[in-house]
Design brief:
7-stranded mixed sheet, 7 strands, globular, 197 residues, alpha/beta
Amino acid sequence: MRRYLTRGLGGTAADLARAVATQGVAGATILEVGGGVGTIHVDLLRGGAGTAVNVELSPGWEPDAAELLARLDLADRVERRLGDFVVTAPTLLPADVVILHRVVCCYPHWEPMLDAAGRLAGRVVGLTFPVDRWWTRGAIGVRNRVIGLTGCGFRGFVHPVAAMLGALATAGFQVSGPTRLSGEGGFGAVVGVAAAS
Protein backbone atom coordinates (compact mmCIF):
# COMPACT_ATOMS: atom_id res chain seq x y z
CA MET A 1 0.00 0.00 0.00
CA ARG A 2 2.70 2.50 0.95
CA ARG A 3 4.62 1.83 -2.25
CA TYR A 4 1.47 2.45 -4.29
CA LEU A 5 0.76 5.71 -2.46
CA THR A 6 4.27 7.02 -3.06
CA ARG A 7 5.16 5.57 -6.46
CA GLY A 8 2.02 4.13 -8.02
CA LEU A 9 1.78 0.77 -9.73
CA GLY A 10 4.92 -0.93 -10.98
CA GLY A 11 5.95 -3.99 -12.99
CA THR A 12 3.29 -6.19 -14.50
CA ALA A 13 0.59 -4.57 -12.34
CA ALA A 14 1.21 -1.28 -14.16
CA ASP A 15 1.39 -3.08 -17.51
CA LEU A 16 -1.92 -4.80 -16.83
CA ALA A 17 -3.70 -1.66 -15.62
CA ARG A 18 -2.55 0.25 -18.73
CA ALA A 19 -3.63 -2.58 -21.02
CA VAL A 20 -7.07 -2.77 -19.41
CA ALA A 21 -7.47 1.02 -19.45
CA THR A 22 -6.91 1.08 -23.23
CA GLN A 23 -10.12 -0.94 -23.54
CA GLY A 24 -12.05 1.91 -21.88
CA VAL A 25 -12.97 1.86 -18.20
CA ALA A 26 -15.06 5.02 -17.77
CA GLY A 27 -17.89 4.07 -15.43
CA ALA A 28 -16.98 0.37 -15.68
CA THR A 29 -17.57 -2.21 -12.99
CA ILE A 30 -14.39 -4.04 -12.00
CA LEU A 31 -14.03 -7.50 -10.48
CA GLU A 32 -10.52 -8.19 -9.25
CA VAL A 33 -9.62 -11.73 -8.23
CA GLY A 34 -6.93 -12.12 -5.60
CA GLY A 35 -6.23 -8.41 -5.62
CA GLY A 36 -4.48 -8.30 -2.26
CA VAL A 37 -4.65 -4.69 -1.10
CA GLY A 38 -6.38 -3.87 -4.39
CA THR A 39 -4.02 -1.41 -6.02
CA ILE A 40 -5.01 -2.34 -9.58
CA HIS A 41 -8.72 -1.78 -9.14
CA VAL A 42 -7.96 1.32 -7.05
CA ASP A 43 -5.85 2.65 -9.92
CA LEU A 44 -8.65 1.95 -12.40
CA LEU A 45 -11.20 3.65 -10.12
CA ARG A 46 -8.94 6.70 -9.93
CA GLY A 47 -8.83 6.56 -13.73
CA GLY A 48 -12.60 6.71 -14.12
CA ALA A 49 -14.00 3.23 -13.44
CA GLY A 50 -17.24 3.20 -11.47
CA THR A 51 -17.13 0.50 -8.79
CA ALA A 52 -15.09 -2.56 -7.88
CA VAL A 53 -15.44 -5.89 -6.12
CA ASN A 54 -12.30 -7.62 -4.87
CA VAL A 55 -12.40 -11.35 -4.08
CA GLU A 56 -9.43 -12.28 -1.90
CA LEU A 57 -8.56 -15.60 -0.29
CA SER A 58 -6.33 -14.20 2.45
CA PRO A 59 -7.77 -12.02 5.23
CA GLY A 60 -4.30 -10.63 5.93
CA TRP A 61 -4.74 -7.95 3.26
CA GLU A 62 -7.89 -6.44 4.77
CA PRO A 63 -6.40 -3.89 7.22
CA ASP A 64 -4.15 -2.32 4.57
CA ALA A 65 -6.93 -2.44 1.98
CA ALA A 66 -9.31 -0.62 4.33
CA GLU A 67 -6.65 2.00 5.06
CA LEU A 68 -5.90 2.53 1.36
CA LEU A 69 -9.58 2.92 0.48
CA ALA A 70 -10.10 5.36 3.36
CA ARG A 71 -7.06 7.46 2.43
CA LEU A 72 -8.24 7.75 -1.18
CA ASP A 73 -11.92 8.21 -0.26
CA LEU A 74 -12.92 5.13 -2.28
CA ALA A 75 -14.44 2.92 0.44
CA ASP A 76 -17.99 3.50 -0.82
CA ARG A 77 -17.04 2.31 -4.32
CA VAL A 78 -15.35 -0.98 -3.39
CA GLU A 79 -16.80 -4.18 -2.00
CA ARG A 80 -14.29 -6.63 -0.55
CA ARG A 81 -15.14 -10.33 -0.24
CA LEU A 82 -13.14 -13.12 1.32
CA GLY A 83 -13.17 -16.54 -0.27
CA ASP A 84 -12.03 -18.82 -3.06
CA PHE A 85 -13.02 -17.14 -6.33
CA VAL A 86 -13.96 -20.39 -8.06
CA VAL A 87 -16.26 -21.33 -5.16
CA THR A 88 -17.80 -17.86 -4.74
CA ALA A 89 -18.11 -17.06 -8.47
CA PRO A 90 -21.77 -18.21 -8.68
CA THR A 91 -22.67 -15.58 -6.05
CA LEU A 92 -20.99 -12.70 -7.88
CA LEU A 93 -22.63 -10.28 -10.26
CA PRO A 94 -21.12 -9.88 -13.74
CA ALA A 95 -18.63 -7.03 -14.17
CA ASP A 96 -17.45 -5.14 -17.22
CA VAL A 97 -13.82 -5.99 -16.42
CA VAL A 98 -12.37 -9.02 -14.61
CA ILE A 99 -8.75 -8.81 -13.48
CA LEU A 100 -6.56 -11.78 -12.50
CA HIS A 101 -3.10 -10.45 -11.65
CA ARG A 102 -0.72 -13.20 -10.56
CA VAL A 103 -3.53 -15.47 -9.35
CA VAL A 104 -3.88 -18.12 -12.06
CA CYS A 105 -0.41 -19.31 -11.06
CA CYS A 106 -1.59 -19.75 -7.45
CA TYR A 107 -4.38 -22.12 -8.42
CA PRO A 108 -3.71 -25.78 -9.27
CA HIS A 109 -6.34 -25.93 -12.02
CA TRP A 110 -6.59 -22.89 -14.27
CA GLU A 111 -9.68 -24.09 -16.17
CA PRO A 112 -12.37 -23.39 -13.54
CA MET A 113 -10.79 -20.03 -12.71
CA LEU A 114 -10.74 -18.79 -16.31
CA ASP A 115 -14.15 -20.31 -16.99
CA ALA A 116 -15.62 -18.31 -14.09
CA ALA A 117 -13.76 -15.16 -15.18
CA GLY A 118 -15.05 -15.54 -18.74
CA ARG A 119 -18.63 -16.01 -17.56
CA LEU A 120 -18.49 -12.95 -15.29
CA ALA A 121 -16.66 -10.56 -17.63
CA GLY A 122 -18.92 -8.45 -19.81
CA ARG A 123 -16.18 -6.79 -21.84
CA VAL A 124 -12.62 -7.50 -20.74
CA VAL A 125 -10.53 -10.10 -18.95
CA GLY A 126 -7.06 -8.88 -17.97
CA LEU A 127 -4.54 -11.33 -16.58
CA THR A 128 -0.90 -11.97 -15.83
CA PHE A 129 0.83 -15.27 -15.28
CA PRO A 130 4.34 -16.77 -15.50
CA VAL A 131 5.89 -17.64 -18.81
CA ASP A 132 5.64 -21.38 -19.49
CA ARG A 133 9.35 -22.16 -19.86
CA TRP A 134 11.50 -24.91 -18.38
CA TRP A 135 13.45 -22.47 -16.20
CA THR A 136 10.24 -20.96 -14.81
CA ARG A 137 8.83 -24.38 -14.01
CA GLY A 138 12.14 -25.34 -12.38
CA ALA A 139 12.36 -22.18 -10.30
CA ILE A 140 8.77 -22.45 -9.12
CA GLY A 141 9.32 -26.13 -8.33
CA VAL A 142 12.33 -25.27 -6.15
CA ARG A 143 10.38 -22.47 -4.46
CA ASN A 144 7.49 -24.87 -3.79
CA ARG A 145 9.87 -27.32 -2.10
CA VAL A 146 11.42 -24.59 0.06
CA ILE A 147 8.00 -23.22 1.04
CA GLY A 148 6.85 -26.78 1.77
CA LEU A 149 9.67 -27.15 4.31
CA THR A 150 8.12 -24.32 6.32
CA GLY A 151 4.81 -26.17 6.56
CA CYS A 152 3.01 -23.67 4.36
CA GLY A 153 0.44 -25.22 2.03
CA PHE A 154 0.86 -22.60 -0.71
CA ARG A 155 2.14 -23.82 -4.09
CA GLY A 156 2.80 -22.00 -7.34
CA PHE A 157 1.94 -23.37 -10.77
CA VAL A 158 2.96 -22.74 -14.35
CA HIS A 159 0.10 -23.37 -16.74
CA PRO A 160 0.14 -23.59 -20.58
CA VAL A 161 -0.17 -20.08 -22.01
CA ALA A 162 -1.71 -21.12 -25.34
CA ALA A 163 -4.35 -23.25 -23.64
CA MET A 164 -5.35 -20.46 -21.25
CA LEU A 165 -5.62 -17.82 -23.95
CA GLY A 166 -7.41 -20.37 -26.16
CA ALA A 167 -10.00 -20.95 -23.43
CA LEU A 168 -10.73 -17.23 -23.34
CA ALA A 169 -11.09 -17.22 -27.13
CA THR A 170 -13.52 -20.14 -26.90
CA ALA A 171 -15.50 -18.14 -24.32
CA GLY A 172 -15.95 -15.36 -26.89
CA PHE A 173 -13.00 -13.12 -26.11
CA GLN A 174 -10.39 -11.88 -28.54
CA VAL A 175 -6.90 -11.52 -27.13
CA SER A 176 -5.74 -8.03 -27.91
CA GLY A 177 -3.56 -5.33 -26.50
CA PRO A 178 -0.10 -6.08 -25.20
CA THR A 179 0.32 -9.81 -24.85
CA ARG A 180 4.00 -9.72 -24.14
CA LEU A 181 6.79 -10.82 -21.90
CA SER A 182 7.68 -8.60 -18.99
CA GLY A 183 10.79 -9.08 -16.89
CA GLU A 184 9.21 -9.09 -13.45
CA GLY A 185 10.79 -11.46 -10.98
CA GLY A 186 13.51 -12.44 -13.42
CA PHE A 187 11.24 -15.03 -15.02
CA GLY A 188 8.95 -12.95 -17.15
CA ALA A 189 5.20 -12.88 -17.20
CA VAL A 190 2.53 -12.81 -19.85
CA VAL A 191 0.31 -9.74 -19.72
CA GLY A 192 -2.84 -10.45 -21.67
CA VAL A 193 -6.06 -8.60 -22.30
CA ALA A 194 -9.00 -10.40 -23.85
CA ALA A 195 -11.88 -8.24 -25.07
CA ALA A 196 -15.36 -9.55 -25.78
CA SER A 197 -15.78 -10.22 -29.50
